[in-house]
């Protein structure tokens, strides 16, 4: 059987910033349909850079990024939709939750009536249908992040990119949102690339964990997790989860700056 | 019984004002200070009543200059800011002149403007505008630049057009800074109008409150001078209150706390 083109394919992609900083050494990465891949590694190892290259917010200095085997002009078409969730909610403070969620549809030129009809289902997915008329200043940090996720989901993306979306939240809220994310991604077969600082979050969500190293940014190791395991509270308590966390801790210690001979704090 | 902080915020300054007025009145009466040195509040009130029509006419004149200058400042300032934000080159070439305009004391160039612009009203408006426009330009410019970089990336990722960027991102982002600029400018427009009237020193049908003050000084009619001064202060307070209310109204939703 001939395999379809991977959702994302990076071929010898490299990023050197205009100031000469080498953000990423040439690297290869393929992400297939329905995978949930997380990127983890020490600060400054190029996780955000890699994600922005995939979102076309950065241009590679070398190599090529392919989306479904095509170039970026294909993005936005049916079956080729991409959504990005930033570390901060980045909501429009002057608009209410419903209008914030509708924004990508407005920008994509979806007719108003059609766009309106998609707001509530998206808000329901993140449990915020009661807050549609509220303004961002009236929401908690976790609620704002959920609005940001609803805004990403409302376009019915085929590829979801998230850069430390829950980094600023407390552990309790973060775990709950992780469970919601796992459920959504599994249900819709959404292809997701997820940057995180937390190896527990990576272990809980991913079907594959990419461990990155710094100076220059590169892929150090890959760790595959059986995607068949249901990602719920029971999984978090299981021996399998503990073993995954142990393995990831070992991999991360190999790339920790101190081990690599750099100065600590 | 508990008093709300809001009631205190209104009542306390009023109480202070009443106390000061009472003390002022008492001091004038107790030490028999003649009105041409320091009029008592009741003398000022009497003068205000006696010269009511003339003073109100002058107030209308000053307010006309103020409002015209404010309107031109808003239109011109916002347009300038949009022009300056178009490119770094435009900004670096023009910004020094905007600053030169700002740092030159208006009193120093007002006589020149009054000679150049023949008609009195337009000359006064030009002077007041020169004073009032700067906060609008600089605040709007800063506001247009204060766009959340994440939101900007979001717009770019969705291939937003320049017009969409402007209407749905830049203008709303600039609004809080613009409103703060408007509040400062409204006060400066009044200052500018009064200063310009002083320099022009014109009487006649378009005489403003500054002319009333000058005239009262020549005639040693000190209560009338204070009455004109009181009207300027009240006008300033009303302007400040109006722009503050407008600011609250426009920004109430995205600063709402509850
Ligand atoms: N616009 C830029 N110009 C120059 N250098 C940059 C730029 N963006 C990132 N870098 C550099 O590239 C490297 C990788 O940065 P990146 O933001 O991708 O790291 P990260 O893994 O996301 O770190 P963190 O976990 O702290 O978010 C860093 O050394 C950073 O200083
Ligand atoms: Mg980062």
UniProtKB/TrEMBL annotation, chain A:
GO molecular function ontology, one term from the record: ATP binding
S-adenosyl-L-methionine as UniProt keyword: no
Pfam family, one: ABC_tran
ABC transporter domain location: 8-241
UniProt keyword list: ATP-binding, Nucleotide-binding, Transport
Family: Belongs to the ABC transporter superfamily.
Protein name per UniProt: ABC transporter ATP-binding protein
Species this chain originates from: Gluconacetobacter aggeris
Automatic annotation (TrEMBL), chain B:
Cellular localisation: Cell membrane
Mode of membrane association: Multi-pass membrane protein
PROSITE patterns per UniProt: ABC_TM1 (PS50928)
Transmembrane annotation, as ranges: 7-27, 63-85, 97-117, 123-144, 190-214, 226-246
GO cellular component: plasma membrane
Database matches in InterPro entries: MetI-like, MetI-like_sf
Domain ABC transmembrane type-1 intervals: 59-250
UniProt keywords, alphabetically: Cell membrane, Membrane, Transmembrane, Transmembrane helix, Transport
GO biological process assignments: transmembrane transport
Domain of life where this protein originates: Bacteria
Family: Belongs to the binding-protein-dependent transport system permease family.
Protein name: ABC transporter permease
Species whose genome carries this gene: Gluconacetobacter aggeris
């Amino acid at each position: 059987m001939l395999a379809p083109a991977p959702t994302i394919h990076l071929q010898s992609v490299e990023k050197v910033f205009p100031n000469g900083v080498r953000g990423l050494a040439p690297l290869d990465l393929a992400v297939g349909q329905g995978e949930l891949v997380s990127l983890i590694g020490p600060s400054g190892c190029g996780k955000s850079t890699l994600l922005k290259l995939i979102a076309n917010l950065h241009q590679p200095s070398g190599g090529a990024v392919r989306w479904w085997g095509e170039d970026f002009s294909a993005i936005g078409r049916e079956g080729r939709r991409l959504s990005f969730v930033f570390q901060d909610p980045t909501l429009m403070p002057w608009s209410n939750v419903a209008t914030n969620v509708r924004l990508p549809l407005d920008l994509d030129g979806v007719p108003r009536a059609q766009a309106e009809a998609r707001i509530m289902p998206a808000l329901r997915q993140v449990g915020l249908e009661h807050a549609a008329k509220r303004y961002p200043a009236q929401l908690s940090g976790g609620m704002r992040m959920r609005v940001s996720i609803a805004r990403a989901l409302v376009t019915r993306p085929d590829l979801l990119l998230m850069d430390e979306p829950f980094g600023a939240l407390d552990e309790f809220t973060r775990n709950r949102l992780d469970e919601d994310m796992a459920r959504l991604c599994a249900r819709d077969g959404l292809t997701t690339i997820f940057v995180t600082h937390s190896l527990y979050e990576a272990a809980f969500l991913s079907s594959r964990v990419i461990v990155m190293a710094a100076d220059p940014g590169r892929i150090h190791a890959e760790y595959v997790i059986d995607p068949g395991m249901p990602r719920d509270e029971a999984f978090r308590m299981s021996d399998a989860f503990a073993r995954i966390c142990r393995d990831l801790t070992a991999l991360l210690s190999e790339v920790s700056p101190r081990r690599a001979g750099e100065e600590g704090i | 019984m508990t008093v709300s902080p809001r009631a205190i915020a209104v009542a306390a300054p009023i109480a202070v004002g009443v106390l000061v007025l009472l003390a002022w009145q008492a001091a004038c009466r107790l030490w028999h200070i003649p009105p041409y040195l320091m009029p008592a509040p009741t003398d000022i009130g009497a003068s205000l009543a006696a010269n009511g029509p003339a003073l109100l006419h002058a107030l209308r004149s000053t307010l006309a200059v103020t409002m015209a200058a404010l309107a031109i400042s808003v239109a011109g300032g916002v347009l300038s800011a949009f022009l300056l934000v178009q490119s770094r080159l435009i900004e670096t070439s023009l910004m020094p002149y905007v600053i030169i305009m700002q740092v030159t004391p208006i009193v120093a160039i007002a006589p020149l403007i009054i000679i150049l612009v023949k008609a009195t009203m337009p000359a006064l408006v030009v002077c007041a505008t020169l004073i009032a426009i700067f906060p609008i330009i600089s605040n709007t410019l800063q506001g247009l630049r204060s766009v959340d970089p994440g939101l900007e990336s979001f717009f770019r990722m969705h291939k937003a057009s320049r017009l969409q960027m402007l209407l749905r991102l830049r203008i709303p982002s600039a609004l809080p800074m613009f409103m703060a600029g408007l509040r400062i400018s409204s006060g400066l427009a009044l200052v500018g109008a009064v200063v310009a009237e002083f320099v022009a020193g014109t009487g006649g049908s378009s005489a403003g409150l500054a002319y009333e003050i000058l005239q009262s000084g020549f005639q040693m009619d000190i209560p009338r001078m204070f009455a004109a001064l009181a009207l300027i202060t009240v006008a300033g307070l009303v302007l400040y209150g109006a722009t503050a209310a407008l600011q609250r109204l426009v920004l109430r939703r995205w600063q709402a706390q509850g």
